[in-house]
Amino acid sequence: MVDREIPNPARKLRNQELQAARQELKKLQSAYGRSRNDAPERRQLTAELEKQEQRVQALTQQRDALPTRVQLAASSRADEVRLSVERKLFTDVVKMAAYRADCTLVELADEHLARNADEGHAFVRAALRQPADLRVTANRVDVLFEPMSAPRFTRALTGLCAAVNATNPTFPETRYRLHFSVKNADQL
What pTM did the predictor assign? Predict the structure, then answer.
């Protein structure tokens, strides 16, 4: 395995601590600004402010002393795995195919969804998660979707089903024809 540089995890933790300390300092400064000049609480706030400022300064120095990047083998993430070039290419191809399928479905839904430019991808995601029944007959698989949350989405799903059915899809590696529809879609 080839070692590589990564952002220093210890520095990231120190940055988080520093951010929390700075927020606490701002709260104390705000409380100090709201307090009256002669109030005993102002003396207490002054001491707390000085202590918090010193803490912020110490954390800043500790963070700055840490390198920004370290070798993976020297970090707590040494067991992290990086995909080989072939696996990375394969996963990228699968992602591209899924995105292309998603875009194709968005295009098919265009004439059925009024705000397709704004909602197209979200609609397709919701449609793909929509519960459905499968009914298998001699040479056909019927996919019967449940109606969606809003009538306009159900109408769009019905139109999308018709558009997909027009392509005459088959179940992968079989001779079964696929037919998509929405339950009670004729009542909309």
Answer: 0.52
Which element (helix H / strand E) includes 44? helix 40-65
- Tell me: do 119 and 55 sit in the same domain: no
Measured CA to CA in angstroms, residue 155 lies from 29, 50, 54, 101, 129 at distances of 57, 65, 64, 21, 16
- Rounded to whole angstroms, the Cα distance separating 157 from 112 reads 8
Structure tokens at 31: 């409380």
**Does 165 reside within a domain?**
yes
Within 10 A of 28 (CB to CB), how many other CB atoms are there? 18
* Domain extent at residue 162: 85-187
* Dist. CA 152–CA 66, nearest whole Å: 56
Q: Are residues 67 and 92 in the same domain?
A: no
What residues contact residue 158 under an 8 Å CB cut-off, 6+ apart?
A: 112, 181, 182, 185, 188
112 assigned to some structural domain: yes
Examine residue 149 and state whether it is found in any structural domain, yes or no: yes
pLDDT tens per residue, range 38-64: 677 788 888 899 999 999 999 999 999
Using the predicted structure, report yes or no on whether residue 99 has a pLDDT greater than 80. yes
